[in-house]
Fold this sequence. Notes:
mainly beta, 6-stranded antiparallel beta sheet, 5-stranded antiparallel beta sheet, 1 helix, elongated
Amino acid sequence: MNTITTPNSKFAGLRLEDLTLKLLSMAVSLFQLGVGKEGAVIHKGVICAGSVVLEVNEKRLVVVNVEKKAVLNVSGIEHKQVLDLNDDGERWEGDVLNNQPCGWGVLYDSEGEKKYEGFMIGEAYVCYGTQYYSDIQRVEYEGEWL
């Protein structure tokens, strides 16, 4: 029997066919599945279900609410923090966990210009956000990240 291996208990133990139907009913944006020794394995992907976005890969599971600009599955996050990222002046204003960006916020470059607004974990853009050309403050990309 092909069952799902994932840290998310909502999908754990589902057969590949059941998972496919469940993901399709959730308005899948992009997903990669594989078959391992234990059955189907979720490698990475993004699911959009209304304002909730779920991102999964081999290392983490992130669930956010884009409308509320909030991370839904991580405890211990400090909100509305200012975090200096380096000596050049780059900074993160937003959610922080363990002295790292973790959630919704705004990333500013060394000139104080907005570089990115959206969800970040560590140095990675995740789930959803807007990347800017910092020199002209125009949108470079807006959408989902893997």
